[in-house]
Amino acid sequence: MNEPSIESATLASPHAAAQHGPRPLPLFLDLLASQTEGDPVRRAAVLAGLRAYQVAERAPRPADMPVVARAGRAVLRDYGGDGPPAVFVPSLINPPFILDLAEGNSLLRWLSGQGVRPLLVDWGEPQILPGTGRGTIGAADGGGVGALANLLDPSTPRFASGPPSRSGEDLDVAAHAELLLPLLDSLGEPAHLVGYCLGGTMALGAAMSARIRSLTLIASPWHFAGFGPAARDDIAALWQAARPSAQPMGLVPIEVLQSGFWRLDPARTIAKYEAFGRLDPASDAARAFVALEDWANAGAALPYAAGRELFEDFIAADVTGRGAWRVGGEVADPAKLRVPTLEFVSLNDRIVPAASSARLQNGRTLGLGHVGMIVGSRAREQLWEPLAAMLSQLQQN
User: Fold this and answer.
1) Tell me: the pLDDT tens digits for 262-310?
2) Has residue 168 got a pLDDT over 70?
3) Which of 332, 7, 281, 40 is nearest to 173 (CA)?
4) Would you list the DSSP string of 241-301?
5) What DSSP character marks residue 163?
6) What pairs with residue 331 in β-bridges?
7) 323-343 pLDDT tens trace
């Protein structure tokens, strides 16, 4: 039998897995053992919940919206609607579709009916470059070197040219932020810029050079010292263990990042599957859990340079909070922003603590979790509607 050639090796899409489950599953089972030690009844209940999640019926995801611009390996998807454009920047760590999670629970589709024209940045997925053994990012709607070459073809109509991807070389977080600049320019008019999680960090960096109408951050870290010494030490230990394997591969697998999230609150990681096992599989609550967990357990690997910058420069050295981070040649400094701003910060966020926020003017404090701010039962009241009101007000001025 012929072995697959490394020259054509690509990473499988995270949506192609035949089996659903938490990633990495061995770590989940270790957490399960420690959290249910001495309680076999509870352990069985958690395992039943895990099995129920794995075999649950899944509604088809909403169709991807059309691509209207490309810059290097990033694409911009248009959700329609009237009014000036509002570009939404998701994190690099999980898939962008948290902002378009399911029918009836999509911030972007809802906004398109509120006098806003939302557009979503889709970062694409990693692939192994031929002959290098290193990772870069391929097109969001196709893989392989041919697709990458198509992205870089300057004759492609209606598409921003952008900085080219570099063969065998990783893009760090700042380079990802710089990809936003040609995407914004391609729209032909200033856009509102809205960033979620690490996407907000990148959006703030891009805002120093881009011509925009406003900047909104949602659960976005900036002062990484606000994570606190204990959490930063734990994350540093995680990175020290992962770096020797990640560096030669040129990628930081999603499992490394996911394990870091789980360690922030291992009890909740296990308890939510126990609770899911008690739900009616046909209930709205069960369907919402499955959709959210599928998102949380998906996601592409990070280019090594992006992972290194995140772990070493952001979390360990707090370059953003110290005013030492540059994007597009400009120092990223929230105090120098000259556009209207809005910042949503949650006091219950276990992923991005409130103390790490950018502390922009016109901040709103919420009592929702990191993901609940976007897709929770109170998200429309506490975030969607205030965001739509702010964007609509600015469009009238």
Assistant:
1) 887 889 999 999 999 999 999 999 999 999 999 999 888 999 999 999 9
2) no
3) 332
4) HHHHHHHHHTEE-HHHHHHHHHHH-HHHHHHHHHHHTTS-TTSHHHHHHHHHHHHHT--PP
5) P
6) 326
7) 999 999 999 999 999 999 999
Count of beta carbons in the 10 Å neighbourhood of residue 382: 19
For the segment(s) 67-226+305-396, the CATH number from 3.40.50.1820, 3.40.50.300, 3.20.20.80, 3.40.190.10 is: 3.40.50.1820
The dihedral formed by the CA atoms of 77, 78, 84 and 90, expressed in degrees to the nearest 10: -30
* pLDDT tens, position by position, 353-385: 999 999 998 999 999 999 999 999 999 999 999
b/e map of 313-337 (b: 16 or more CB within 10 Å)?
bbbbbbbbbeeebebbeeebebeeb
Average pLDDT over residues 92-117: 95
Cα 173 to Cα 138: distance, rounded to the nearest angstrom: 16
- In this prediction the pTM is 0.85
Secondary structure letter of residue 55 according to DSSP: H
Residue 359: count other Cβ atoms within 10 Å of its Cβ: 16
Cα dihedral 104, 106, 111, 113 sign = negative
pLDDT for 300: 86
Question: What 8-state DSSP symbol labels residue 397?
Answer: -
> Phi/psi at 285 (nearest 5 deg)?
-65, -40
Q: How many residues are recorded in the chain?
A: 397
- State both tokens at 261: 């999230």
For residue range 219-251, list pLDDT tens digits in order.
999 999 999 999 999 999 999 999 999 999 899
> How far is it, in rounded angstroms, from Cα 216 to Cα 314?
20
Kindly give the pairing relationship between strand 85-89 and strand 117-122.
parallel
Q: Is the dihedral of CA 196, 200, 202, 203 positive or negative?
A: positive
Contact criterion met (CB below 8 Å) for 13 and 298: no
Residue 190 pLDDT > 90: yes
Contacts of 36 (CB under 8 A, 6+ apart): 42, 43, 46, 270
Residue with token string 């996911």:
258
Each domain of the chain, given as residue ranges in start order, spans 67-226+305-396
Residue type, 180: L
